[in-house]
Amino acid sequence: MYPKTQALIQKFMAEGIFPGVVYQFRTPEAVENQTLGWRQILPSKESMELTTIFDVASLTKVICTTTVVLQLLEKGKLQIDSPLKEYLPDFENASITLRHLLTHTSDIQTYIPQRDKLTALELRQAYYQLQPGTNLGKKMQYTDAGTILLGFMLEKIFQKPVVKIFQEEVLQPLKMADSGFLLTDVSLVAPTENHPQLGILKGVTHDPKARVLAEHAGNAGLFTTLGDVSKFTEMYLNFGETKSGQFLKMATITGLLQDQTPLENGNRSLGWDIRYQGTAGKPMLFHTGYTGTFILMDLLARTSFIFLSNRVHPVDQRNQYIEKRNQLLTVYLAELQENKPF
């Protein structure tokens, strides 16, 4: 499928943009999985495999945190425009709402002095004290703080660590059996950065905030495989339906195709980025992970593109990767527009 896109992926890998990748194209007629390169270069080379487990970084936000919040909204246990403080009394500010956090329009001022030297408890207390700026509800600015705070809220509601909530409410119902947090068996894991203090991070969460928060992190920390991410996207492409029943309501899924920012001008849905395809401007759901991962879904055409790499291994060259990723998405969307995947 999508030969121009696949040729570009091979070209970028040959240029060293990422050491290896697994990716999937899905259409209503077919599914194609591909594996390229190395899942590990240091300390020794290991070939990439379909069973490779990736630290998917911020894909945790949409696969886990957003999903559980959507479930609670469906059940009437949360109201999207209610203040976070209503559900998380320890949070000091009373004006930031769930919608602000989910659409990255809280304008939350995230600077925390000596952040990387704080314990998990100290970091939590610092997040409780954050305040919005003057652009609350007016401007979209991507931040980890929103899903970190939403994770704390979920812990308050469920009275258990957020990673246990994710296991019980998302991973287990969707049969994502190869996914998890705080791994003990790292034999199939694609390592990430060569950290100056910690060495090669393999099975250790790449995001520093999530690494400190551990079982309490709602922004990152999910380790998963292409097969499991495919189960998640398939649920979306079937508008919430799985073989076990309706996981999310169809109305919930279709509602995500609308701009959910307060002023409806931020191209953000609840949790998801909205990308528009072609001159007609058809909305697509998109999200990335810092480590070199992304999901792009056209729900209306029931197509998807999953890309899982460990592009930060062993060195993080973010700007170069983002430039190439954007080129890749442009080529894929052009082929999608042609409606000729083969």
Explained architecture:
The structure is a single chain. With 342 residues, the protein is of the alpha+beta class. It is 34% helix and 17% strand. The protein contains 11 helices and 13 strands. The protein has helices at 3-14, 59-74, 84-87, 98-102, 120-128, 145-158, 162-171, 208-213, 226-237, 250-255, 318-338; strands at residues 20-26, 31-40, 46-47, 54-55, 194-195, 199-200, 223-224, 241-242, 245-246, 273-277, 282-289, 293-298, 303-309. The strands form 4 sheets. The chain has a 7-stranded antiparallel sheet, with helices on one face. It has a two-stranded antiparallel sheet with strand order 4-7. Strand 11 and strand 12 (293-298) form a beta hairpin. Helix 1 (3-14) runs antiparallel to helix 11 (318-338), helix 2 (59-74) packs across helix 6 (145-158) and helix 2 (59-74) packs across helix 7. The radius of gyration is 19 Å and the shape is globular. The model has no long low-confidence stretch (mean pLDDT 97).
Radius of gyration: 19 Å
Q: Give the strand content.
A: 15-25%
Number of extended strands: 13
As laid out across the biggest beta sheet, the strand order is 3-2-1-13-12-11-10
The residue ranges in which pLDDT falls below 50 over 5 or more consecutive positions are none
**What integer is the average pLDDT?**
97
- What is the terminal-to-terminal distance? 5 Å
Note the run of SSEs as H and E: HEEEEHHHHHHEEHEHEEHEEEEH
Shape: globular
**Secondary structural class:** alpha+beta
Binned, the helix content reads 25-40%
Number of helical stretches of at least 4 residues: 11
Largest sheet: 7 strands, antiparallel
